[in-house]
Amino acid sequence: MRFLSNQASAYFSWLEDRGLSSLPPSINRNESRSIASGSILQVEAARPADPPTPPYLILSDRLNEAEVDMSKRIANALAWQPGDYKIIAADPLSDAEKDILAGSEVVLALGPGGARHLGSLGLSQVRLHELLPGNKSGSYLLLIPHPGAMLAQPQLKLKAWEAIQDLKALLEKTKATPGG
Q: Distance between alpha carbon 162 and the CA centroid of its chain, in Å?
């Protein structure tokens, strides 16, 4: 019996040291040594920390499958890795999505819906293909046509592509600059 109590105590200590769990509030470390055989303990795993805000955000009000695919190709053209960006296509934005928007280094807004969402950053006038300093130091905003519009009207792609290349050059310059 004593062996079992010592094993339980060692296990709880091991979990605590790794931040994986803690003893239930009703049991302290000293009491765990006196747990009788056959007792059932409920151990709650610690909630994992929220993932960090991705540095890059693609923002729209709606996207179908083809438009999501085009958005991913745009991210690829910017050399953004899948874990480095998030696509948010929602209307309205949730509070969590607004927090992501506010914390992103680069926001690529798609079409009128994306431009409307930029209003939550206090930006009421953003022109198409205009690259702006954003909501915090070192961040940028770019508004391009919605992928659906570019798929329906391929002539829109050229100006969008030029703006995307300007953004890419700026990001590469920023990375190459010490302290940037």
A: 26
Question: pTM value?
Answer: 0.65
Three-class SS of residue 167? helix
Highest mean predicted confidence (pLDDT) among 19-23, 28-32, 63-67, 171-175: 63-67
Q: Residue 80 and residue 14: Cα distance in Å, rounded?
A: 39
- Give the least confident one: 45-49, 75-79, 90-94, 111-115: 45-49
At residue 15, does pLDDT exceed 70? no
Report the distance separating Cα 138 and Cα 104, nearest Å.
10
Arithmetic mean of pLDDT, 149-165: 92
Beta pairing class for 44-45 and 21-22: antiparallel
CA proximity to 86, closest of 115, 116, 63, 66: 63
Burial class (CB in 10 A: 0-12, 13-18, 19+), 125: exposed
Cβ-based neighbours of 152, under 8 Å, separated by 6 or more: none
**How many whole angstroms from its chain centre is CA 27?**
37
- The yes-or-no verdict on residue 83 having pLDDT over 60 is yes
